[in-house]
Specification:
Blueprint: H1 2-13, H2 15-18, H3 20-29, E1 35-40, H4 47-50, E2 58-63, H5 79-90, E3 95-101, H6 105-112, H7 122-126, H8 130-138, H9 145-161, H10 165-172, E4 177-184, E5 189-193, E6 199-201
Parallel strand pairs: 1-2, 1-3, 3-4
Antiparallel strand pairs: 4-5, 5-6
The structure holds zinc ion.
The site of zinc ion has 7 residues, from helix 6.
Length: 204
């Protein structure tokens, strides 16, 4: 915690001073981010850092493995779906980005099962992507399974996004674009999902 408080003091002295006016405007007028990112909670994959985004620029929800659950307005607690509803129906973002990453522990739990001591919630949560696991294992070797499953999980989350009626409607009306992206923490390279279902590195 001491490291974090030291970081907070640096923030107050530097970034806060530099961005005081921006924060003031955001406080006065509210936020109007144009994009929402669904990212993994992994400490190595910070969307604001990867996209060099300023405060107010991206609305973010992070969870294990950057998963979008199926549309299920059943009265239980859906944190990711609530964030999606706010971004799409209240903020009217124009882009939704599912940001997965290499070496994802959540995807490893999907492939191999979480250890028993981590099984209260993780296994149930990652089972959202069971169809992605099945697709990956159908054409992966043990060496490629993790990487292929990471990509398939992103595609599955995009499919689930289109199951939300107000996301599908906004996309049909050209008011919303959906994107799949993957960040490789080994190389720092971001890849985007193309129309042919392949991930291609973004040109530097
Ligand atoms: Zn992850």
């Amino acid at each position: 915690m001491q490291n974090l408080l030291a970081g907070y003091r640096r923030f107050r002295q530097q970034a806060w001073q530099e961005r005081r006016r921006l924060f003031g405007m955001l406080a006065e007028h509210g936020q109007s981010p144009r994009a929402m990112v669904i990212a993994c909670a992994d400490s190595r994959v910070d969307p604001a850092m990867i996209f060099d985004a300023a405060p107010g620029e991206i609305f973010t929800v992070r969870n294990i493995a950057a998963l979008v659950p199926p549309y299920a307005p059943d009265g239980t607690h859906h944190g990711t779906s609530a964030a999606l509803e706010f971004a799409v129906r209240v903020l009217h973002v124009s882009d939704l980005i599912v940001l997965g990453h290499a070496m994802c522990s959540g995807v490893a739990a999907l492939l191999h099962g979480a250890p028993l001591a981590q099984a209260d919630f993780i296994n149930s949560w990652v089972s959202i992507a069971a169809p992605a696991r099945a697709r990956a294992l159908a054409h992966a070797t043990p060496e490629t399974a993790q990487n292929i499953c990471e990509f398939e999980t992103i595609k599955l989350s995009l499919e689930n996004l289109r199951g939300f009626p107000w996301i599908a409607a906004a996309e049909r009306a050209d008011g919303l674009r959906l994107h799949g992206a993957s960040f490789d923490i080994r190389s720092g390279v971001l890849s985007l999902l193309g129309e042919r279902g392949q991930f291609r590195p973004v040109s530097p």
